C-alpha cells in the first residue's frame, strides 16, 4: 500500500484516482492459484466498476478503458458506455506473441507443452522450450489453463494493445505482431518504469555503503516484491556469495517451501529473514557485502556507479530497470512469465547469464559463485556489459521526445481524441 500511495502522490493533478473496494477471497481455499485470484479480483469488481462508470459518465465524456492483461472481462462494461477498450500488456512482446498464438498451439498439440520434443517457434522470436513457457499454461488440465484460453479469446475485441517494451529491444516480435492478421494493433510504449523511490532514500544504508565501493564492483541480488526461495536454496545462495569473493548487496526475504510467489496476496513473513541464514554468515561477509531485510531502493541501487551486476528473478519491471540503467544480469527466473524473460535476456539479447538448476531443483553454491565471478570480473561479463550499454542507449532514445515509444503512445492518444468528437 505504501508503494501504491507513493505512485499516486506523484501523478499530475490532471489525473484523478477512484478506489474500488477490496475483494474478499475468504471463500477460496488457501492453495488457490494466484492467476485465479487475480481473475476473480476483477470479475468480482465488475458491478462496482459499472457503477463508477455511471457516475463518471454524468460529468465526463468517457473515451477509453485500459485494462491489464487479465482485465478483458471489463470489455462488456466499456461496450455498454460506448468507449474503446485497450489492453496494457506489462511484459514482453514475446509473451504477447505466445498469448495470441496459444489457441493455435492448443489445437495443434495434445500433450503438455513441457513434453514437446522441439522448442516452440513463436513468430519473430527465438525458439522457446515448452518448459520455459509461462506458468499458467504448464498444466493443461488445471482450471487456470482454461481460464487463460477464455481470456485470450477476448483479446481480438480490443481496439489496441500497448506493450511495455520498445521496438529496438524486440524488433522481430513487434514486426510479426504488427503484420499478423486478425490481431488488434500493437503499440510499443516502453520502457515504462518508476523514476525514483519513496522517502528516506538519501539516508539509505544501501546507498551510503555503495558510495564506498569501487566502480561496477557490486553484485545486487533481489527477487522482487513477490519472490521467495526455499530455505535450502537460501543457504546455497548465501554460501555462493561467500565463496565468490565479490562485493554484494542482498535483499533477503524469509524462505517459503511451497511457492516462489508466496508474498503475492499475502503479507510478508513476520519472521526475521536473518534467522534463516547460515550460522556466522553475516559476520564472515561483513567486509564484502551488505545484507538488508525485505526491501532496498532498487532504482537508486541500479543507477549507482558502483553496481556492476544484478541477480534477478526476471520480473519485467526489474528487467527494464536493469536495461535502462545498463546493468548486466544473472537471470534466475522463479514464476509467471519469468522463464520466457530469461530466454529473451540470455539467448536473444545476450545481456544475462541464466542459472541452471540441478536434479534437486536447486542452484548450487559453487555454480552461484562462478556466475557471480563471471559477471563481475570475467570476459563474458564484459561482453554482456557492452551489449546492455547498447540497449541502455536504445531505451533512452525510445522514450525521448521524438522516440519510437513516445510517438507510439501519442498515436494512441490521438485515436482517443478523435473518438471523443
UniProtKB/TrEMBL annotation:
Region listing for Disordered, in residue ranges: 394-421
Pfam family name, one: UDPGT
Keyword field: Glycosyltransferase, Membrane, Transferase, Transmembrane, Transmembrane helix
The protein's Enzyme Commission number: 2.4.1.-
Keyword hit for Disulfide bond: no
Biased composition (Polar residues): 398-408
An example Gene Ontology molecular-function term: UDP-glycosyltransferase activity
Membrane-crossing segments per the record: 83-102
Family listed: Belongs to the UDP-glycosyltransferase family.
Protein name: Glycosyltransferase
Lineage: Eukaryota, Viridiplantae, Streptophyta, Embryophyta, Tracheophyta
